[in-house]
Design a protein that fits this description.
Elements: H1 14-25, E1 34-40, E2 51-53, H2 62-79, E3 85-91, H3 100-113, E4 121-128, E5 131-136
Helix pairs in contact: 2-3
Length: 141
C-alpha cells in the first residue's frame, strides 16, 4: 500500500481520472499483472491511499473480484460516508492495446461490481508499456 501525493487535487472528469492514473503509475511499465485500487469522495478528492494487488493471473478469479467488492464496501462505509468512486487500474506487461484478457477483466468486474451491492461508481483503466487508457468509464457503465 502506498500513499498518493496527489490526494488534495480534485478529479472531476474521466479525462482527469486518466491523467491521475498516469501520474500515479508513472512510468506505467510493469513486469507482471497487477490491479491497483484507489477511491474518490463525491467531491472528487482522492483518499490518500493506493492499493496494488500483485501477481494476478491473466484472467480474473471470482474470489479476487468478490474481495475487491468487499474492500470497496468497507472503504466506502468507513471512509467515504456511504458514497464514493472506486478507481481501478489493470497493469500488465505487453503492448498498450486492449486484449481479450483485458476485456474479460472488464466484463468480470462489471458482473461483480454492477450487481447493486456496490455503493457509488467505479472505473477501470489499462496501464501497459508506458501508456494509460480507460477501459470502463467513470460511471462504471
Amino acid at each position: 500500500m502506498t500513499t498518493s501525493p496527489l490526494a488534495d487535487a480534485r478529479v472531476r472528469s474521466a479525462a482527469e481520472l486518466t491523467d491521475r492514473w498516469r501520474s500515479v503509475l508513472h512510468p506505467a511499465t510493469f513486469p507482471a499483472r497487477s490491479l491497483w485500487l484507489t477511491w474518490f469522495d463525491t467531491d472528487g478528492r482522492q483518499l490518500p491511499v493506493v492499493v496494488p494487488v500483485d501477481d494476478l493471473p491473466a484472467l480474473p478469479e471470482p474470489a479476487l473480484l468478490v474481495g475487491v467488492r468487499e474492500v470497496h464496501g468497507s472503504v466506502v462505509d468507513d471512509q467515504l460516508g456511504g458514497a464514493g468512486h472506486l478507481a481501478l487500474a489493470l497493469c500488465r506487461p505487453g503492448e498498450p492495446v486492449v486484449t481479450a484478457e483485458d476485456e474479460t477483466w472488464a466484463a468480470e468486474l462489471r458482473s461483480t461490481l454492477d450487481d447493486g451491492a456496490v455503493a457509488g461508481t467505479w472505473s477501470l483503466h489499462l496501464a501497459a508499456a508506458g501508456s494509460v487508457l480507460p477501459l470502463v468509464d467513470r460511471s462504471g457503465r
